[in-house]
Design goal:
By secondary structure, the chain is of the alpha/beta class. It is 31% helix and 17% strand. The protein is built from ten helices and twelve strands. A twelve-stranded mixed β-sheet has the order 7-8-9-6-5-4-3-2-1-10-11-12. Bound molecules: S-adenosylmethionine.
Length: 321
């Protein structure tokens, strides 16, 4: 097991199933150009084998399937069934929700119980201008169906100063009513935002966000698991919400995340473009692969940041958020 001087070890794996996405969210990609699959993406079997090896070599116990948009990948069902056999303590998916309703059956069948849906607004025209695609009503219907099927749904919102700050309270109301945990993600200074005034203009920090929410609700701080990226808050008798405060309260010191891109590269840090191919290891006999993975994992761990998220031009599509 690889453990660094801060006591960090890899426990959470995030797999970007494909770099392709049916949306082109303003904070994720420039120019409204929809992301395409990368050349030579791994197939579903190879990805499931990669996960199995990382479970044994790194001690991964939790998996999040992301992208791109994982639910548009033709390998989603095969991959999900493959990883369902690994006995992980937690398998979850992050999606924009456009195809959620169609995938609830295979998710239930494979024992996947947790879904995070990215939803930045409840206003249909704002939705189109942020996501530059998609249909809000279809996403809301998917969320309703997932909740009715007994799945644990969380909603992720990226608050932005001019684009959707007026949606912070309506989205919180919506989530509290449905017993859904809303998680606000502070805008990350990565990808094209690194070279763009949009970041300075749109960033909303945790204090401003809490002030806004406190205009309507009483808010109390509550405990979160030690390696959680999200700070948790309680609204007495009504529910909870979280803030992923990349900038205001960086969580690098307790980060246990490892990322696998759709074309077989491992990333030890969301804020580092250093990557390590493991494609060749997937053909190797088990013990050779496990052995060689130790060196790769040591390098990936060394690329983790110490204190704060400094950002990178790394694009979220390669490593899945
Ligand atoms: N397509 C899926 C979705 O929409 O949830 C999964 C991939 S998306 C890259 C994963 C998450 O990253 C989404 O919740 C999205 O809002 C978030 N994200 C992307 N770029 C971001 C940025 N610059 N700052 C903060 N969050 C970002």
């Amino acid at each position: 097991m690889i453990i660094d001087s801060f006591g960090r070890r890899f426990q959470n794996l995030r797999v970007s199933l494909t770099a392709a996405c049916n949306y082109a969210c303003t904070y994720c990609v420039p120019d409204g150009k929809k992301l395409q699959a990368q050349s030579a993406e791994l197939d579903g079997d190879a990805m499931a084998r990669a996960v199995a090896l990382l479970v044994d070599a790194a001690g991964i116990s939790r998996l999040r399937i992301t992208g791109g948009e994982p639910l548009i990948s033709p390998k989603f069902d095969e991959f999900l069934r493959g990883v369902a056999r690994l006995g992980l303590s937690d398998v979850a998916v992050t999606t924009n929700g456009q195809f959620l309703a169609q995938k609830i059956g295979v998710m239930k069948e494979s024992g996947l119980g947790r879904i995070n849906v990215s939803l930045d607004t409840l206003d249909a025209s704002k939705y189109r201008s942020i996501a530059r695609s998609g249909d809000l009503a279809t996403v809301l219907e998917g969320i309703d169906q997932a909740c009715a099927a007994g799945m644990k749904v969380k909603v992720n919102m990226v608050p932005m100063r001019t684009a959707n700050i007026d949606q912070v309270v309506p989205l919180l109301d919506y989530c509290l009513l449905r017993d859904i945990e809303l998680r606000f993600i502070e805008l990350m200074n990565m990808g094209h935002l690194k070279r763009n005034q949009m970041y300075e203009r749109e960033f909303v920090g945790m204090d401003d966000l809490l002030d806004l929410i406190r205009n309507k609700y009483e808010v109390r701080t509550t405990d979160a698991p030690f390696d959680s990226t999200s700070l948790r808050f309680e609204i007495p008798n009504q529910g909870r919400f979280g803030i992923i405060a990349n900038e205001s309260e960086p969580f690098c010191r307790t980060c246990t995340r490892l990322r696998l891109s759709s074309n077989g590269f491992l990333y030890g840090c969301l804020s580092s473009s250093k990557n390590y191919s493991i494609r060749h290891l997937l053909e190797e006999p088990y013990y050779i692969a496990i052995n060689e993975l130790q060196d790769v994992l040591r390098n990936a761990m060394a690329s983790k940041q110490r204190l704060a998220f400094t950002g990178e031009t790394t694009v979220m599509k390669f490593i899945g958020g």
